[in-house]
Every structure is written in C-alpha cells, then in structure tokens.
C-alpha cells in the first residue's frame, strides 16, 4: 500500500481515533456531481479510487483527479462510444515506483489506461460486457516459496480475467519512454483506428457463471492442483464469487485451457477432424475464393474453471466482497444486513455479523497489545509483526465505523462518521520492493458534503 503523509492530530479533551489530512472541496467537483447532499454515496454510477496523494472520482464520462487542500487537479474525458451509450463502470490506480496511471473499466468491456495528463496509454477489449470491478493486488508465485507477483483482475457478471502485473509494468515503461522521445508524434499515437496500434496484453479468462450472474468476484491465491490431473508447471488459482443465486461460490481456475485428460484428448482430436472435414468439403464444392475484411478483435477463449463449492440461501444475495491482503480472508456483505467472514483456503465461513445493512468493509491493521513507548519512539521502525489484521465495518445507517480484530477478536474501536461519508483505501503498489519500509493498511474516511478527508489511527492510545 502507498504511504500518505499525515497531519498532526487535533488535540481535544475527548479522545479521537482519526487524523484529519485535508479537504478536497473545489469547484471542479461539480463535474462529477457534487453540489447536493449525499452526492458521494447515493449515485451508483460514481466511482472513487485513492492514490498516494490524490483521489480519482469518475461519474459517467468524466474523471476528476484532485488532491486535498491546494493539490493539482486534472480532468480526463475518455473517448467512449456514443452509439453503445458507453460509460465508466470501474476505476482504479496502477502505481509503480515512478509511474502512476488510472485504469478505467467501461460498460462495453474495454480496459483503458490513462496518464495523469489525460493521454490514452492503452486500450483493450477484454470481454463484451459490463466491467464490474478492477482489482489490483499481489499473489504468491507458487506454494513453496514466499516470492510474490502482481496481478490486475477484471470482473464481469459471470466472467473474470487476469492480467500479469509485470506485463502491464513493461507496457507502461515502454510508453513513457516513447512519449518522452524526441521524435515521438503525439498525434499519431492518439489517432486511434479501432485501437489497432495498441499492443495487446496477454491475459487469462474464466467463465465463473455456473451458479448464475455474480455481483462481485476475486482471485484469492494459488491453490493445489486437483487429483488425477495432468501435472505440469501450470498454476491453479482459487476464485470466490458472490451473487443473487449463490451467496458464495468458489472455483478452481486453471492457467491451461486443456488441463484435464478429456480436454487434452479433445484438443488433439477435434481440430484434426474439423480440418479433414473442411478439406474434403472444399474438394467437393470447389468454393470460390473470398476476400476477407479486416476482422475485429475477437474475445479470448475461456480457460478451465472447475466449481468447488456453492452456498445458496434464498432470498439472501451477496452484494460486496472485500479481500484481505494475503487473500486468505474475504468479507462478504449480503442483502439481509449480514457480514460473512470467509476463510478462502478452507472455504468455510468463520465469523458472522448481523444488523449491518448497506455496510462497506475494508481490511486494516492496528497496533494492539504493543509497547506504546517503543512503538512511538522515533528510533524504532515498525514492522509487519507489530500490527494485527482487523476489519473496518462502515455502517452508514448507524453513522459509525467499527474496527474488529481478526479472526475472532473483539471490537477495538468505534468511530463516529457523518452521513454521506465513504471509506477508501490507497491503491496497492505494484512492483514494490520487499526491502522497502513496511506500510500498514490504512482506512480513510471522505465526507462528501464537506470534502474533508481523514484517516483512522493505527494506535488505540
């Protein structure tokens, strides 16, 4: 996660659990719908993403990037199709060491990447459907080592796609090097013709709609291969989905499209048979040669997704899914005001909260049962072992944020928040070094009506 500078906590007689950072209020916010009470939380087409020092807010066809106080402000207006009534449906930051860009998902299935000055870096059709969410996180490369890779997942209603973070990093580095070259022609790079000049990024895609359309999904981690499968160097992933028919379902995702024995046989027999039939038919019919037009980019074929488990509990519906940094826990909100804590490795619900309608959840880290004198010392550098994983639950109907210790710990703190507030978390830093100082998980609170941005303190003192 990215570190964000903190202002000094205002001292009051009453103990406070938040630190105010600044205010994003500005005239430009009217472009994304600001100006009426509750604008930040009542518009389902409004999307927010927090970067290191900036917030990106998208509404329909415009993106506003703004900092707090006197920070710079930028507008990005993606080129969307008016014929298909295309609009922005997902938003996320892609943050590398020296590169920060905005990833945009559209209602037509396009993944767009923009630089902060509004230049289109990449455009690619992923799948012809509405993109529900963009997820950026790190995953283990294998089960035996602690080495990590980065990924960007694109979630549709019944489909999930995975991009390797290193491929995106190479693309961004190449683009930024070319954009600063002395003979780089900006007009040529932006004179798009069906997106043909963009280098197509490799990705994997799976059909996860066996149990109906899903409202959200996530790739959790690497998982062991199934029994009786052809063993190879290919990896398997676990995907968790939530939706209307199945509150929770899980799938084993294979990197290879033909991992099973049956699939391997079909992959050899079917193409050969089809080729023989096609050749024989040409000999008989002697069809005239046809001139083919330049075909549009076809959607990528699906890799194999095997169902693992499914929880159906009508009329309960899964609504939102939040994944822990390691991917071993997932917080799921449902239509009955419950929050389920899922162990994604055992695929069992290990905790349940009730009475939290319209709740939003984010994982965070707190300093619990630590030597406060040692932790507050300027000579002591905090490590990951000094923090404990917690879940922050924003209950807008109650006007509070509760922080619970994982997995079965108590409620640590309750923070009051005004109506019209939204909780946010900084983007995952892709390609960050393992030797860099540890940055704990933060949870930020943005009040839409006033524009005030604050952060929940890690210490309970």
Gap between N and C termini, in Å?
Answer: 24 Å
Uncertain segments are 8-13, 186-196, 259-296
The helicity comes to 10-25%
Strand order of the largest sheet: 1-28-27-26
Shape: globular
Question: What structural category do the secondary elements indicate?
Answer: mainly beta
Strand content: 35-45%
Number of strands: 28
The multimeric state of the shown protein is single chain
- Average pLDDT for all residues: 82
Radius of gyration: 24 Å
Protein name: Rab3-GAP regulatory subunit N-terminal domain-containing protein
Organism: Erythroxylum novogranatense
Domain Rab3-GAP regulatory subunit N-terminal: 39-424
List keywords for this structure.
mainly beta, four-stranded antiparallel sheet, 461 residues, single chain
Task: Describe this structure in a few short sentences.
The chain has 461 residues and is mainly β.
